[in-house]
Amino acid sequence: MPKNPKTTDGPRDKAGAKVVGWLLLGLVVIFGGLYVAAHYVAGDKVPRNTTVSGVRIGGHPQDEAADRLRAGLADKVDREIATTIEGEQVAVVPSEAGLGVDYDASVAEAGGEESWDPVRLWNYFTGGDEFEAEVTVDDAAYNAYRARLDEQHGTPARDGAIAFDGAEISTTEARTGSALDPSDTLTALREAYLDDAPSTVALEMAEVVPQVDASDVREALDGFASPAVAAPVTLRFEGSDVKVFPADYTAALSLVPTDGELVPTLDGAALSEVVDGLVTAGAPVDASVALVGGRPQVVPARPGVTFDRAQLEAGFLDTVAKPQGQRTLTLDATAAQPDFTTKDARDLQVRERVSSFTTYFPYAEYRNINIGRAAEIIDGTLLKPGETFSLNDTVGERTEANGFTKGYVISDGILVQDLGGGVSQMATTLFNAMFFAGLEDVEHKPHSFYIDRYPVGREATVAWGAVDLRFRNDTPYGVLIDTNVTPSTPSSSGVVTATMYSTKYWDITTTTGERYNITQPETRRIDSLTCHPNEGYGGFDIDVVRYFEPVNGNTESREDEVFSTTYTPSDTVICTNPDAVDE
């Protein structure tokens, strides 16, 4: 019987297969070991024959290669780049121009990064090439450096412009400029930065065209600026017309360069301020009289107008550019007329100085403050015929909040400190101005004892809530009161002047009699920490007469007016408290 092949050949075939398997496994192990060994040798190294910008870095790990590249390029990265701009030699410092080298990126680009790629491992042993270093640019530093070069060697372009100066127009001519082209300049500097054989780089200036040229200026002149100053604009407030003139409103206008054009722009707040100067938003303002250049002049009344400011701003630019005859802007508004009109103010006939009086006071800071503050409040007061002036009502209570400070006042015949000390100096000055203007004395009280810097028998004191200075304008004309103070200094006296303006109605003269009923001072001993010593003097009575002579067509007659004053003695004060402070 023939033998079964499977039974005869099986063991031999199995043995052969095992040999082949072991052989393949051995080859895998051998090649795997070689592959691992190759990675160990070259896996994180730059291919052997690699150079970057002329520096050999092949065969070294990435960090070491980067250090070698940094050392090899040290002279180049710090080397100035020779350039010319418009024929002038300019040395560019790379670091200032924002140029630098990324050493790690340069090594990575040359193949110096860890890899298991067999092609990468093969290249290490057989490859390597020439590369250029990765140059970095700090855009902010570069742009700032280029701007400095432009400032030194270029010419800035100048936009054409239009400006208003009152009713006049001024123009600025457009001008073409020159500057370094940002892209071309950077390319030229990068190419020369690490060059092995650098040559001088010619940096070319490029023409810079202004955004607003001569044609844009002409268009803005014809379309807006010239019409804007050609004529006033009329604002119509429901029957009450107000003219606004170019000299006033052009401060609110401007032509702003926008996308190559000069665009008319309105400052709404500035325009509203101009209109507010012509009308009063809300309540009307009465006419008045004020000193202008040292002469009384009527300040016209202003109607009170309530209007929509947004409507004014929205329509003004269009209106101001229209031709004459069409320059009216109607606003939804209501108008209210003042109670005291400009005609009423003119009828007061405040035309000339009718009296003026000046007094002087010794240095004290509290006097400067208090007298100055009183003068500030009183100044500009206008008395209409029949009106009565009250110093207390006008000045108000002498408090710190009202601008006053503590000073010496007379109380019970001696000097004590209180708020508003010194204001009686203003009362005396004002009383004398009233006296010589021929106005009616309604209320005045002389000081309790005589103060020698005041005219004897013609002076007045005031105290809040107790003693006032009041006089009435009993003439047919208005009276404008002007008060002025020159502060005292340690070396000079202060000066207070009160002047009254009106139409002269009386010519006033006066006489002062002899002193009589002489009384002697007493001596007081005061045990107080706030005691103020005083050297006393006697009291007396005195009479002053005011005479009225009518002038300027005045047909009235008035009897002589007698002012009788009794001054008590000013007592000698001796301070007995050793700790008393003479403030």
TrEMBL record:
Top-rank taxon, per record: Bacteria
Keyword RNA-binding: no
Keyword check for Cell inner membrane: no
Alphabetical UniProt keywords: Membrane, Transmembrane, Transmembrane helix
Pfam families (UniProt xref): VanW
Transmembrane segments: 20-42
Protein name listed in UniProt: VanW family protein
Organism expressing this protein natively: Nocardioides renjunii
